């Protein structure tokens, strides 16, 4: 399985656009709580929660 990386801003914008992440600071999936970790072989952008270290979105 090969990982690739794209511009992290683009990854976050797309994740917000499709509802995986949110701009709402009170939301559980608030983008500010996540780190972009790369894109997997299937084209899925991976985000890790900064507090739990889980890939939960």
Low-confidence stretches: none
Secondary-structure element sequence? HEE
The DSSP helix count reads 1
Residue-averaged pLDDT? 96
Q: In total, how many beta strands?
A: 2
Termini distance? 20 Å
- Which band does the percent of strand residues land in? 15-25%
> Biggest β-sheet, characterized?
2 strands, antiparallel
What would you report as the Rg, rounded to the nearest angstrom?
11 Å
Strand order across the largest sheet: 1-2
Which geometry do the CA atoms define? globular
Helical percent range? 10-25%
Tally of domains: 1
Structural class: alpha+beta
Tags for this model:
57 residues; alpha+beta; two-stranded antiparallel ribbon
Describe this structure in words.
The chain is of the alpha+beta class and 57 residues long. The chain has one domain. The chain contains one helix and two strands. Strands 1-2 form a two-stranded antiparallel sheet. β1 and β2 form a beta hairpin. The two termini are 20 Å apart. The mean pLDDT is 96.
Give a quick precis of the structure.
With 57 residues, the chain is of the alpha+beta class. It is 18% helix and 19% strand.
């Amino acid at each position: 399985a090969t990982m690739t990386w794209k511009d992290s801003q683009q990854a976050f914008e797309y994740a917000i656009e499709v509802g995986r992440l949110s701009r709402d600071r009170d939301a559980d999936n608030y983008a500010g709580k996540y780190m972009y970790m790369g894109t997997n072989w299937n084209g899925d952008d991976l985000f890790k929660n900064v507090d739990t270290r889980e890939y939960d979105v």
